[in-house]
């Protein structure tokens, strides 16, 4: 093998879409500047010099708030809006939630809070006789289906095989843009403490009564010692579909009939990506996932019931927390406390395929950790318009001055490369990353340790993470494998948010 062929493959080229503006400003700031100048001219003509100064100061403050951005690309106006929204939440008491017989939920149920309050769970049988669950999100008219996958891991795997997995995974992401009605997808990797009970049941069922005493003792020692410090890794893939097809809303029964013949194909398309087969979760399994997330202490009881062959029948109206408290920088649900971060900047430059390995793998400092990658599907027609707009924006920024910055030249190079790859048939997709750490709600030391650990893991993955202050409860729900397209729940439209980039 030649030296060039043995070099590990690198990846990169991702970029943040930007809008064109004047004097290096984004489009929204440019529009505010022009509007301010027009207002000042009319005020000078009508109200005089003093009135012009007052109006000019107002527009100057507004423009300063738009232009002052922190390292997470948040403008001062955005930070101010978040603070005001959080103040309104506290004044209205919306940060408190109580359910159950003494709560405010209907009929004394343990209804899910926040964005999941109006969701409904349905179960159907596909064309092969397998039960599968459909989560209805009526607020936005979405339906989601969650698959459980078993990743093979990259230990003792050749780099060529890993590159093949990555290539096939990229092909799957491109194919998502061709799926009818599919608007978003997410991959969730959760690590939690392993009780070892499944291992004990598996081994004890296979011990031969006539085996030597030494062999039996060795197996018993393995069963008793191996679970110490071990972790259980679970991976889910959730696909979110729109109920609007050809201008008509599909009811859940109509959607189920339409998705049944496609369900197995949706799961089998992940073959060859390193995750093995994908099987859609049943309603019972999805209830267990959500119940364990909101109340981690119930996870062991659920596992015991499943191992005993007598699972506790759950309904969607009873899987929520008995109560929660949303704080500025944390979320307390039942007896646990969670903190959720979002990625605000992808790694700069090129990276290797194992860049997220330390972030995804189990960590002793964080007992329960959930990493979710959210993909927003872009159809081919919209992708072509998006890359052309990015090229024009980058060209405008690079040619605005005689001496463009190195970052502007590099941005133009990346935008041109992306447009060329899209023209050759490559797909385009928006993505985001959420990280949730859950600890004992009464352990302040564990909370601080988990916070420091996640931020350190983000640095090792060359990611810039930001705590989602003021919206920890919504971020927690968005990181669950339920297919919530969080960008659709933001009050400011996506098109307006892009103008501030």
Output the keywords.
alpha+beta, 15 strands, 13-stranded antiparallel β-sheet, two-stranded antiparallel sheet, 16 helices, 501 residues
Q: Count of helical segments?
A: 16
Mean pLDDT: 84
Percent helix: 40-55%
Total beta-strand segments: 15
Terminal CA distance reads 45 Å
Structural class: alpha+beta
Q: Strand count, sense and closure of the main sheet?
A: 13 strands, antiparallel
Question: Proportion of β residues?
Answer: 15-25%
Which term fits the overall shape?
globular
Rg (CA only): 26 Å
Unreliable stretches: none
Describe this structure in words.
By secondary structure, the protein is α+β, with helices and mostly antiparallel strands. Helix content is about 40%, strand content about 20%. The chain is built from 16 helices and 15 strands. It has helices at about 5, 25-45, 50-65, 75-90, 160-175, 195-205, 215-225, 250-270, 285-295, 300-305, 355-360, 380-400, 405-425, 445-460, 470-480, 495-500, and strands spanning about 95-100, 120-125, 130-135, 140-150, 180-195, 230-240, 245, 250, 280, 325, 330-335, 335-345, 370-375, 430-440, 465. Strands 1, 2, 3, 4, 5, 6, 9, 10, 11, 12, 13, 14 and 15 form a 13-stranded antiparallel beta sheet that branches. A hairpin with a 4-residue loop joins strand 10 (about 325) and strand 11. The radius of gyration is 26 Å and the shape is globular. The two termini are about 45 Å apart. The mean pLDDT is about 85.
